[in-house]
Amino acid sequence: xxxxxxxxxxxxxxxxxxxxxxxxxxxxxxxxxxxxxxxxxxxxxxxxxxxxxxxxxxxxxxxxxxxxxxxxxxxxxxxxxxxxxxxxxxxxxxxxxxxxxxxxxxxxxxxxxxxxxxxxxxxxxxxxxxxxxxxxxxxxxxxxxxxxxxxx
Length: 152
Ligand code: RB5
Hints:
Elements: E1 6-11, H1 16-29, E2 33-36, H2 47-60, E3 65-70, H3 74-80, E4 88-90, H4 94-102, E5 108-112, H5 118-129, H6 137-147
Parallel strand pairs: 1-2, 1-3, 3-5, 4-5
Helix pairs in contact: 1-5, 2-3, 4-5
Residues 12, 14, 47, 70-72, 74-75 line the site of D-ribose.
């Protein structure tokens, strides 16, 4: 039997509620091993701390995926994309989430709780987790991104 795929979630205080609901939803579905890197309350928390924890975990093993939630998604993406091997995409629609996987092989989805409702967030997560990289013409572009990872 294939090992269950793993997905991690993390948020700051501005994404805490949406993260909690998504963790519960994904655990109920039971299709993925779900890792929760916090934060665990609405108390003010610094998004770089949570984005970094998740990014390190995702980059550790090919195939791992992550979901980061803050107020807008932007701070989380900025931090996550500083980590080697991370391709984090801020998405506001299911179409963006789908193309982020198919074309960019994004391994981290960044959401903004202040801008995206729970229903749309759950739909985007579904799309993100269930689409795969198309390769082909996108592979060369990904190789170029990879080569830039050691840029000053
Ligand atoms: C926190 O107030 C907010 O700045 C943060 O959650 C995020 O939106 C940053 O990008």
